[in-house]
Structures are given as C-alpha cells and as structure tokens.
Amino acid sequence: MLSSYASNSVLTKTRSKFGKMLKSDDYKALVAMSSVSDIAAYLKSNTHYRDVLKNVNESAIHRGNLEFLLRSQLLSDFAELCNFEKSVGNHFFEFITAYGEVNELLRFIRYFNAGQPEKYLLNMPDFFDKHTPLDLVAMSQVKTYSQLVEFLNHSPYQKLLSPFEVKDGEPLDILNIEAELYKYLYKLLFKLIDSSLHAGKEDLINIYKMNAELDNIRRIYRGKKYFGLSKEVIISQMLPYQYKISKRQLDKMLSADKPDEVLEIVKQAYRSKYCDFSSSNIDMNCYIIFYKYISKKLRYTKYSSVAMACYFYLFDYEIKDITTIIEGARYKVPFDEYKDLILFYS
Length: 346
Description:
By secondary structure, the protein is mainly alpha-helical. The chain is built from 19 helices and no strands. It is globular and about 50 Å long.
C-alpha cells in the first residue's frame, strides 16, 4: 500500500492539474477565434498545453496534428501521476494503453471501412506509438480485413476481431466490432481494479459502472431512434454492467416502442440529479451526468486513485470540447450552431 504522505501528495498533484484546466475566459477566447492557427497560438501562450506546443509553428499546424498533441499532453500528465503512485500507477497505465489501442484500432477500421486505410498514416498519433507494442505504421499498410486479423496475431485483439471477417468489398459490422472491443476494455479494467487491492476500489467500480451504463443508454436510445434495432441486437452490443438502472427498468428500456420512453425511464433512475434531459442530444445528456458526477468526486474524494480516474475523463472531455471548437473554426461554423455540442456550455 502507498504511504499516507505519498497518497496525499498524488491527490494534491492531481487536483493541482485539474485546477490548471481551461476556465470560462479561455473558452470565451477560443470560440471567438476564426482559425486553427489562432486557437493553437492561444493554447500555446495561455494554457496548460504550453509545454506540449512550445516547439509548434502555430501558423502551419494541421487540425489533426493539433488534436494529437493535445492528447499527448493527457498521456504525459497521466504517465507522470502513474509514475508517482507506483502501487496503482502500473495498473492504470496498462488500462490507458489498452484504451489507446482500442481507439486506434477503431480509427483505423473506420478509415479501412471507408476504403481509405492509407489516411490513417497521415493522422497517426506518433506520441502513442512508443507506448504500445502494436506497430501502428505497419497496421496502416494493411489492405484487407484478413491481413488486419493476421497483423493482430500476437495481441488479444485478434480473437475479438476475427469473427467479423467479411469478403473483400463488403462493409464491416462497425457497431458490433466496437462493442466487442469495449467489452474487452471494461473486462480488463475491472480485472485490474480487483487485482490492485487499493483503497477507493468501491468508488472506482462505481465510476466505471456508471460510465458503462451511460454508454448502454446511448446504445439503446440510438438503436431505437436511428436504426430500428431489435431488443436482441441491442443487448448483444451492450456492456454487461449496471449502476443506477435496475434489471426491471433495463428490460422496460429494451422493450420500449419509442426512444422517448427510454429517456423517461432514465430520468426516473437518475432522478434528474445531474441532467434534466431537456436536450434531444442523448450523447450530451449522458456526458453532462458523468461530467458533474466525476467533477464532484475529484473535489471530495480522499483516494488518489479515484482522483486520477476522474482527472483522466475530465481531461478527455476538455480535449473533445477543444476539438469541436477547432472544427467550428476550420469550417467557419457560427458558434451558436455548435454551442450545444460543447460540454462546458451545457
């Protein structure tokens, strides 16, 4: 177990990093900018991203490269915290590595499914390449799905992806591929939590079960509203975890004829504590619930491991917000038209 002094130091360090995240004035400045280079210059000069952007020529930076650099700051911050708290750091970083691998696999598969696998190489995150045994450059050269499965021969992902092999030219079952990868990720996560035997385990389990449940809510709602999926198909794509929603409520959600019925059940389960679901954007509703929950957890927890987990998600949300602002500037979209997509303003 970590000493009380070391644990308190990590807790203080994590909250200090949280305190350096973007504030209201930063967001006001960013949404007022009309170019990616202006946004990069502001982040470089005025925010906690200054170190990762210090060698960047902001007038020439590409949107994708800027996002990858911001994500490298997240990885760097988390590596620092994990290194400081060895007792749980190795477990956390194993999960972060797997999280990165799953997201990179999904990014490549989406390019591949669109018939543009070569584009992955142009947008490959160099900062992550050194943290994973997967050869991302070699993966970008894959031309068929069977080659991708063979490429993953010495990883846990081959077994997960091989059942989805299709004939050349046929579209991939992206939804079920994504579901299988995330099931693996959560299974690994809970295994790591169970084996680490550290204080705060119950809080960590609740955080991740809540996140998994919110992911299931999105899948159920989208499956009914946009794809007309059957109950059986939706169940096959869900993560096997529950937090606030009972088995009875879950069955009602899965059997509902209309997506609005799903939302009514969610409102009952969460009692509108963090979100009133007034927005029709199911993703944003779920983000708001989780964001408010983990923000409060980070402020009041006495466990460094819980603070680290909350910080990771909060940082990830911040990068998603910045990415949305960058996209708005790149395509000259008025702020009012994408404001509802920014978690900070929701």
